[in-house]
Design a protein that fits this description.
- The structure is a single chain.
- 38% of the residues lie in helices and 14% in strands.
- The protein is an alpha/beta fold.
- It has a single domain, classed as NADP-dependent oxidoreductase domain (TIM Barrel).
- Strand 4, helix 2 and strand 5 form a beta-alpha-beta unit.
- The longest helix has 15 residues.
- The radius of gyration is 18 Å and the shape is globular.
- The chain binds NADP nicotinamide-adenine-dinucleotide phosphate (NAP).
- NADP nicotinamide-adenine-dinucleotide phosphate (NAP) binds next to helix 9.
- Keywords: Oxidoreductase.
- This is Oxidoreductase.
- One of its GO terms (molecular function) is oxidoreductase activity.
- Pfam families: Aldo_ket_red.
């Protein structure tokens, strides 16, 4: 078993929990379109166990993945959970029969989703609940106070330990922080999508984690001649460069790359340790313009 410090990036403090900056995102363990079970359930369980065996202590999920599929896999693979493991989940959307992600943020919706996550993961308290505002296309402006008041109540009731945000604007982050302590923001961000550059830096100054989703491009792998050139020069994969860049970008960035392959998981852990020079960073900065 690898020790915590052996993972690239070291650790970060999320509220009162310490997590490895190299984490794991479970979304793509569900079936196509994040609906239904995986084609290879045993393979999915093996990836989750390999992640924890490698020392990863931050796993990202949602009851909406499947729905219920990734939570059930996490429970089957890892329950009873190691004390060091932080499982982060999300509320604010459910799934419909067409595989859509309808918004569900009324107090009763959020309470139901928290309960579904508690039941699915088999725990009395959720380590971290992100309130999802916009969707995978980006944030949508709008008030966050009522939803966060519900999560603050659930926190006081002991069902939620820490609160985070997902798909939010800087204004929504500021509004949220006036209601409840926020430990992380999970938005889309990678080498090619850098709308949140300022937000990453602002959150770093305030000790709040930034957790980029689609760190490898998500359903459309990152592709760029500049990225390939840097990867070739260093003799590593483009995925390695993309992950190493995020770790070097700011100390508050936590990685949750997804994979359904133990081989890819191990490649990504090794690759994220790649050291990028000033020249590499300048070439990579040019990708987003
Ligand atoms: N808050 C939100 O709204 C939101 C939205 C989307 C995602 N998320 C979270 O963010 C996490 C990360 O996003 P993601 O998993 O969708 O995208 P990602 O991490 O950017 O990319 C995952 C994809 O990259 C492939 N991949 C990974 N390592 C590879 C390697 N070494 N070689 C070749 N291909 C490789 C995977 O395929 P293989 O399976 O073949 O390895 C998978 O298709 C999700 O798991 C989820 O927890 C949150």
């Amino acid at each position: 078993m690898t020790t915590l410090t052996a993972l690239p990036g070291g650790t970060w403090t999320l509220g009162d929990r310490t997590v490895t900056r190299f984490g794991y995102g479970a979304m793509q363990l569900a079936g196509p379109g994040v609906v239904g079970p995986p084609a290879d359930p045993d393979g999915a369980l093996a990836v989750l166990r390999a992640a924890v065996d490698a020392g990863i202590t931050h796993v990202d999920t949602s009851d909406a993945y499947g729905p219920r599929v990734t939570n059930a896999l996490i429970r089957q693979a890892l329950h009873p959970y190691p004390a060091s493991l932080v499982v982060a989940t999300k509320v604010g959307a459910t799934r419909d029969a067409q595989g859509g992600w309808p918004t569900a943020r009324r107090p009763q919706d959020l309470r139901r989703q928290v309960q579904d996550n508690l039941d699915g993961l088999g725990v009395e308290q959720l380590d971290l609940v992100n309130l999802r505002m916009g969707d995978a296309r980006g944030p949508q402006p709008g008030p966050v106070t009522e939803a966060l008041e519900t999560l603050a109540e659930l926190q006081q009731e002991g069902r939620v330990r820490h609160v985070g945000l997902s798909n939010v604007t800087a204004e929504q982050v500021a509004e949220a922080r006036s209601v409840v302590p926020v430990v992380c923001v999970q938005n889309m961000y990678n080498l090619a999508v850098r709308h949140d550059d300022d937000l990453v830096d602002d959150l770093a100054r305030d000790g709040i984690a930034y957790v980029p989703f689609f760190p490898l491009g998500g359903f459309t792998p990152l592709q760029s001649s500049a990225l390939s050139a840097v990867a070739d020069r260093l003799g590593v994969t483009t995925m390695a460069v993309a992950l190493a860049w995020l770790l070097q970008r700011s100390p508050n960035i936590l990685l949750i790359p997804g994979t359904s392959s133990v081989t890819h998981l191990r490649e990504n852990i090794a690759g994220a340790a790649t050291e990028l020079s000033e020249e590499d960073l300048a070439d990579l900065d040019a990708i987003a313009g």
